[in-house]
Design goal:
Layout lengths: L4 E4 L4 H19 L10 H8 L3 H25 L1 H4 L2 H22 L3 H15 L3 H11 L4 H25 L5 H22 L1 E4 L7 H8 L14 H30 L2 H5 L4 H26 L1 H22 L5 H17 L1 H11 L5 H30 L9 H19 L1
Parallel strand pairs: 1-2
Helix pairs in contact: 1-7, 1-8, 1-9, 3-6, 3-17, 5-6, 5-7, 5-9, 7-8, 7-17, 8-9, 8-13, 8-16, 11-13, 11-15, 11-16, 11-17, 11-18, 13-14, 13-15, 14-15, 14-16, 14-18
Amino acid sequence: MQPKTTQLNMPNNRVFARYAIAIVAFAQLFGTSLWFSANSAALDLIREWGITAADIGWLTNAVQAGFILGTFLIAATGLADRFKASSIFVCAAILGAVFNFCFAWLATGLSEAMLYRFFVGMSLAGIYPIGMKLVIQWAPDQAGQALARLVAMLTLGTALPFALNGLFTALAWQAVMSCSSVLALIAAGLIYRLGDAKHSHTAKPQAQSLRAQQAVLTKSGAFQVFKIAKFRAAAVGYFGHMWELYAFWAMLPLFIQHSGIPEKLGIPNVALLSFAVIAAGAIGCLLGGYVAKQRGSAQAALGALWISGLSCLAFVVGWRFLPAWGLLIILLVWAIAVIADSPQFSALSAQACPPEKLGAALAIQNAIGFAITIVSITLTSYAFDFIGLDAAWILLIGPVLGLVGFYSIRRNEMRV
């Protein structure tokens, strides 16, 4: 049986649309708990397998590489726009749950672990960008706010394995990781029951401008969306944000442990501290959605990118002399800002491209963005083994290049 398609063309169905967005958001929360399930057990893996921080970086990059390949395949083959989004999501969530379970119970070393995590990453390619498409289907006129709620759930999904690992310290890390597989199966069930929205009018309010832009897209390739200046500016800002985001999340437990925060504050549970910091990003997503509603997605995204860059600078300059509580506050502000711009850059990209290119455009943007994360994670994790917390300087590159690129492209567009 295929997931159903729900006709959404009556005013009273707006209530059901809000319900549907909530369902997709919770499915995203459960499905994306697969992403950092291995990182939540990083300290256990370092102890049991005798690996280093750089090896944890490779384990994280295996997921990113799988995600990149998955999104490229979805974009290049047109799967994202050829099949029902709900069908892709359901299959991907089930496969991700299986591969995550295999990592937890079958892997005995880094090489096997990387293979299983790679396939988890490929599965996530059918969860994260396809979840964005589902949300935009149900709320085409409120993309910024709807995506803000969705990415808030992605953030909580990222943090969730850390909470499980911190709360169930008596359990083996394999059992805790298996909880993420169970949550992914629940996500598959939720989306299977919900299905896709089918609007009687699929065009967006900016349909006229999109039709004009379509003349630019003379070829069928997914990369043609980069010929649209507004899409290109949003994508460059997004790429700068991605350089910083996943390296920050991947390195956060090590940042917390090596800064002395647990000992000085009397909170020895690094996993729970990591959960609290990453989960704070959900607040940032919601705040970004509010700002976007008041002042537009561009202002919300750029403001968050500025704050995350300044927070990174404050941490890397101040870790030697600031008190532990001050460093924790900086990390919390950094975590709030570092993810708040993500849904807004995605909303700007969605608004800039034609509806029939939406799935492929979001997939290709995600693929390039996650390719960038492999470079930043690798550099930061390797640098951490040699220079410790000063490795955070590498993360500052993202906000700087993102801001410079966005402003430069938009300025040139205004001159044309």
